[in-house]
Design a protein that fits this description.
It contains eleven helices and nine strands. With about 290 residues, the chain is of the alpha/beta class. It has a single domain (about 5-290), classed as Aldolase class I (TIM Barrel, Alpha-Beta Barrel), CATH 3.20.20. An eight-stranded parallel β-barrel has the order 1-2-3-4-5-7-8-9, surrounded by six helices. α9 (about 245-255) runs parallel beside α11 (about 280-290). It starts with a helix and ends with a helix.
């Protein structure tokens, strides 16, 4: 991408904001499930929740130009089926002409800002089902953090149940990302034990008046066989924040992608900001794990 791309993007947003709706109206869509029936989605909804860090770099995602360049690389690579983001990022990508024939996932609740005293109050501050329908997006996504010691969880569960019901009524697939969470030294920590993930699956799966369009987005944890035995809902694996050896991470993804019910991978920071800086290589490796030749 060039400076001219960004100049045109800024100019369009200032002078022709109506063009955003025009671009979405003309966007070429694709079937959700086709070919091998698996999905590789690149996630970029972290900044709207105040989560700008990757590994030890607390501001890695703060530069929007660099983020868009990395997303452009990802969306150009074979095997990348789509992107997950908030309206600002999705609209930038649409104006840049990068969303044709891609699955576009709208992120809905970003109100639980990282580090805030109200972080467990995951309010719906981005897309809603009506806007997802209006702009012709393909998928909805929700974060469902359950903290049994925090009253903010109740409102999140109620709002999520309403969103799931609306999505089902509208025929929109909706991806729930559940965690059992707790406050530890003033910060939210997600419990990534196998039993905790299974409990989160049980809670999230029952939200809404129908689960007919519900998908799950789950972390890769030890004994994933038990996790996948706890649900019949289609599941995408969560890449998570990069930690440990990258080869070990890829091996864990490879093993879990072979389990019944797993339909693919949703990854963001670990492949958009790999330690060696080679975004193309990280994307291609992940794509090859999802879409096994």
């Amino acid at each position: 991408m060039t400076a001219l791309d960004f100049d045109l993007l800024r100019e369009t947003r200032a002078v022709r904001p109506d063009r955003i709706a025009e671009v979405f109206a003309r966007r070429t869509r694709r079937e959700l499930i086709k070919g091998d029936g698996r999905l590789f989605i690149v996630a970029a909804d972290h900044p709207a929740r105040g989560a700008l860090g990757v590994g030890s770099d607390e501001t890695a995602m703060a530069n929007r130009y660099r983020l868009l360049e990395r997303l452009a690389i990802a969306l150009s690579r074979p095997g990348v089926d789509g992107v997950l983001g908030t309206p600002d990022i999705i609209e930038d990508l649409a104006l840049l002409g990068l969303l044709d024939e891609k699955i576009v996932v709208g992120s809905m609740n970003r109100g639980g800002l990282k580090g805030a005293s109200f972080e467990m109050d995951d309010r719906y501050t981005a897309y809603d089902i009506n806007s997802i329908l209006r702009y012709g997006l393909d998928f909805a996504k929700n974060l469902v953090r359950v903290n049994l010691a925090d009253v903010g969880t109740a409102g999140t569960l109620q709002a999520t149940a309403f969103a799931v019901s609306e999505a089902s009524n509208a025929g929109v697939p909706i991806m729930l990302e559940p965690f059992m969470s707790e406050w530890v030294d003033g910060k939210i920590r997600n419990d990534l034990s196998t039993d905790a993930v299974i409990l989160s699956v049980a809670i999230a799966s029952g939200l809404g008046n129908s689960s007919s369009y519900t998908w799950l987005k789950l972390p890769v944890v030890p004994d994933m066989e038990r996790v996948m035995a706890s649900t019949t809902l289609p599941t995408l694996l969560l890449g998570g924040d990069p930690a440990g050896d990258e080869d070990d991470t890829f091996d864990a993804w490879r093993n879990s992608l072979s389990l019944p019910g797993v339909r693919g991978l949703v990854v963001g920071r670990s492949i958009l900001y790999p330690r060696n800086g080679d975004v193309t290589s990280a994307i291609d490796i992940a794509a090859s794990l999802v879409h096994v030749a």
